[in-house]
Amino acid sequence: MPPQSQSDCKLSPRACELPTCGTTESNLLRCSAGKAVYYCRASRLSAADSSGTLTASYQAADRERHTKGCNALKNTRMAYAKEDKTLRKYRDPIWELHEPLRDWDIMLEVFGGPGGHVDSVKEALYHLLEMLRLSRSDNTGLRDTVPGLYIRLNMDQAAYDFMKWYATTDKCYWNIDTTPYLDVKNADILEDPLDIWIVWPGPSISLAHVAAVLLIKVRILLGLQAAQNATRAFKGTIPAEIIEIIRSHLVGRIVASSRPDILLGSPEKLADLIQRVKKQVRLLYESINRYNPHFSYLIQDEPYPEAEGALVALGHALKRDNLASWAETPGAFEIIRALGAEF
């Protein structure tokens, strides 16, 4: 199925689930059974409408639509809680997880599509991180899906730290619980790509991670270009302080907080940084293209030339782990199309 239009591909904020309401006020209450949807706090109390007639709460009014999915979630959560309690009795790392694999391809095929509720993405990320802690060796490859979820939540720095830990930590230490785990924090997100991400063939590394690093660099590039355009458009028309605020918003929280010098730098310095990030984007794209030239077609659901089955399967796996985060980044596909046209 082709991805939605860019304007439709974004996460929905927490909101009252009643279709006729949809308020995003801060005092929403979560359904206590399925623990997935929210309703207005005030709506839990009976209230009189304009005619003086008592009306049911919004959750009660939505019961017919809500009940089936809620009961399914409730039963699934109960089964999960039971298994979780059993697994946490083990003090030693769980080295292998094999039994669920026959179902995982189906689960992951429909997992993580563009759009949806932000709370769903947060919970999916939480569960994947917990599963990784349960089995740090990660023979099932869950680590490939994690960065995309971080990016969808605008946690690019956490995604980059996560991937850099795997890129710089020898695999033999992954499952040794006495060694530091995911302890890379606040790595320089503007640094040049690690050799392990751009040199093929190389040590065992996740191609999905390289694609996610590429997306982070694309997001940085888009923000820097927007800031550059704002500087050019508003220079001499509004105070410099206002331009700085606009630039801070456009480059994003990650760059603005980790590298405030970018906001204070000259237009020439910003232009130099844009060229540097462009080079990084090209290096990462070339790395992926050498390993699987079908990535740019598959990530956009475009027709692609005939290819060996293994490469196409790998391309689909890349798409599964990365599509939503790409689709929810306005302008990202355009950059990929431009790069694809050069190869």
TrEMBL record:
- Designated name of the protein: Mynd finger
